[in-house]
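In this section we walk through a basic example: taking a raw amino acid sequence and producing a predicted 3D structure, encoded as discrete structure tokens. The instruction is simple. Fold the sequence below.
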Amino acid sequence: MNFESLGLSRPILDAIADSGYTTPSPIQAKAIPPVLEGRDVMAAAQTGTGKTAGFTLPLLERLSGGRRASPNKARALVLTPTRELAAQVGESVRQYGQHLPLRSNVVFGGVKINPQMMALRKGVDILVATPGRLLDLYNQNAVRFDELEVLILDEADRMLDMGFINDIRKIIRLLPEQRQTLMFSATFSDDIRKLARDLVKNPVEVSVTPPNSTAEKIKQWIVPVDKKRKPALLIKLIAENNWQQVLVFSRTKHGANKLSRQLEDAGITSAPIHGNKSQGARTKALAEFKAGEIRALVATDIAARGLDISQLPHVVNVDLPNVAEDYVHRIGRTARAGASGEAVSLVSADEFDQLQAIERLIRQVLPREEMEGFEPDHNLPESRMPLRPLKPRRPKKPKPRPEGGQASGEAQARQGQRRNSNAKSNSNAKSGANAKPAANARPGANGRGNSGGNSKGNSRTASGANNAQGKPANQGNQAKRQDGGNRKPTENRNSSENRSASGNARPQNSAGARNQRSGQGARKRRPSPNGNR
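The resulting token sequence is shown next.
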């Protein structure tokens, strides 16, 4: 198969020929036809497989025959997780579209926003952006999406890992419903598929490599070593093997800075690249590394998917990543486009769990090789076999929510009935000598005693004689207001039955009644054994 058979126009074919390519890669051969047909596409491909051209070439073909973009409008939007990846995609768009009258632009954070706003005034056919800066430009009315035709998410899984999910959802709400959506990701995790449900419609799924696999031409091996001796071992590997271009990964920004200084002190030209560096410093370091002016580029995982370095021969993991998938993306910087490469990891004993997770993910045991003079004092345990992949935990089924609060109310009612039943049984067990009929009990008092616990008129009286005269709670309250505070306390007027109905309420004197009317609860007193207060 060649590019002519894919249905691309002559200007794009000329640009491909200028770049030195003659045969499409597997991901390009599978992704380009459905994109040209206008279908939504979900493509799974590792880095270095030519996936950027897999969506750039058909995108240019689709936009080449349409009308130009209006001022402050974009016809196609490509979202990327990092500045480096945005710059890489923007360069591919310019390279393959050099013979087409299309405008493109790249926007990301870390640089001044005003020049980007000025560049968008005339409108762009293809806008490559990071999510945060794109929202900033939209909020300042620098870009609108009324004419958007195509949305592309590049490295979608990385964007989720970096916490861009909320920004992505905000951007999606700004886009027109009628559009073509393309998702390119290294893996199709459950989170990716959940996001895809809101983005793509009847997508064509394309996959050219098994999920989480590494390139076949990468030689992978590990060196057991104590953590404190890792910098010295790295210096020895670079010096003795005469590595002229090596990409070194550190887990932290501070570690990257420190490691770069140690390499410089050993006479190995080096530069760190991470999120705390300005965009100018990152661009300068990457350009010097590509040009061979520095031998070692020390990076954090933020650069793991944003660096496009052709013919990179060596990758060294000084620290293993906390997330096993990041290992695949780290070493994917080498052996790109069919070339060969080498990836070595310096592993200490406290990183055994990360090593196990990586070996389970790639389903192979990495060979070990101890370096003379760097034998570890703390031995690295042997990998266990068989290396079965870890099964993801099943998500908990959400509990059905009550409609209109009805189910919740019924549940509360049942709970209240159980409490009243328990209280009644307890009070019956305690009734006996203490439960004496009240001599001066009045019907209004029964209503008052019951008003705290039963609001449906089924008030209980303190004696059997008053059961027939028991008044509802609202009538009891009226009687209480009429009597004022002149009532005389009765002897154990509210017995055990009253306590169960009113939530263990104690008899109150006239002062307590006044306090209750003023919104203050009366002081609870325990009746004496002989029934007197």
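Looking at the output, two observations stand out. The CA atoms of residues 419 and 454 lie 13 Å apart. The chain is about 40% helix and 10% strand. In the next section we compare this with other chains.
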